Amino acid sequence: MALYSAAAAVLAGLERGEGGLKSLVYNSGFPHVRQLYALVSETLRYASVLEKLLDRAALLQAEKKLTPQLAKVLVYDLLFGKGLKCGGRWKALARRHRARLEAELARMKVRRKVSRSEDLLAPEKAVSAAASQVPRYIRVNTLKTCVDDVIEFFKRQGYAYLGKAASVEELKALSGKKFLLDPHLPELLVFPSQTDLHDNLLYTSGHIILQDKASCLPAFLLGPVAGSHVIDACAAPGNKTSHLAAILKNKGQIFAFDVDAKRMATMNTLLTRAGVTGCQLVQQDFLTVDPRDPKYSRVTHILLDPSCSGSGMVTRGPGEEAAPSAERLQALAGFQRRILSHALSFPALRRLVYSTCSLHQEENEDVVQAVLQEWGSAFRLVTAFPSWSCRGLAAFSGAESCLRASPAETLTHGFFMAVLERCREGAADPSSLPAAAKENPQPGKGAEPGAALKKTKKKK
Fold this sequence. Notes:
CATH class of the largest domain: Alpha Beta
Strand content: 5-15%
Oligomer: single chain
Helix content: 25-40%
């Protein structure tokens, strides 16, 4: 029973964009990670087949207590896996519907003119070329170490350091035991796609964070100065929170919100391992937080990465994400508009980054446009990261100020980001880059080669 619940939780985390497959499995707390990883991977591999079976057998309508993620895991193991060798009451529940599910599976094979279940995967099983090129990114945790020391550590482990990449194109050619410094983010190292560092000493000790490049951008673009009060509104599993703490140099205050107790426990473990201090974990729905509470009177920066369809996530295991229905997109967008508008109501707020790991305009440009219209001239959209090539869709005038990321164009997971700043009468136009970015000029903007390394060098 614990195995199926843990697998369902990992699937839900993937859909919410809380991390990659391996990271979520390793951070799940489940004692048998190989068993869990195998079950989730295979469930993902059969995802499109499972969704059709669940729909045609009307299993979720018949069993109201089942979540879609748990249903997928149970039906996978019932029909394609080991036949529900464990599971307690969930096993009994799934077996009640076995005959109907098997009948729907047989009909599917007849329609597709195949005899084996494996053959149902033929059109879906190939991972796109673009997705397979997404490298392994690691963020150096500057609360514990510096870029130079991490580079030297990997060189001693037999890796060849090739210096700072001049462009994203250079990252595509990485292979074997070679790595680069990212061309955009000064504390991000880039390894070949299949590099597994989960057992590496630097990862287990919290000196490095396994975090996709696109996931590093929100905190980087928010760029609060040391001493700031910051809210991470939808914080779990905590990678962005630890990034904010590193940017703040553990000076200031972070309020990290999440409503789920298990995710909060996981986040607490991650932040402790990363050496984060000055962070208050709050188990509360951010929408219920009173912006006028004196506790938050000094909050000037908010990072808002709400629940979304997760359509931009590229799992490092097999499988693909199913397209969300129009009804689900509408519901998600409604929630995202409410929570973004709520975040803007904090009285001292000066800068906010809204981000999703979704590719859908409904969750991205449309949400930003609707909330900006609601707030009138109080806030404006900032042209974030001008040197970033992948921009927002032309959904409204000024949408090009937003950022997008994708496997094909930026060699990252799919992501969307918008930077909003409060308007002030008589103030100059807001900077398009936060303080952190100003200190680390971009390639082609007068940056000295190796300048990022020099700036992150610390005395031991």
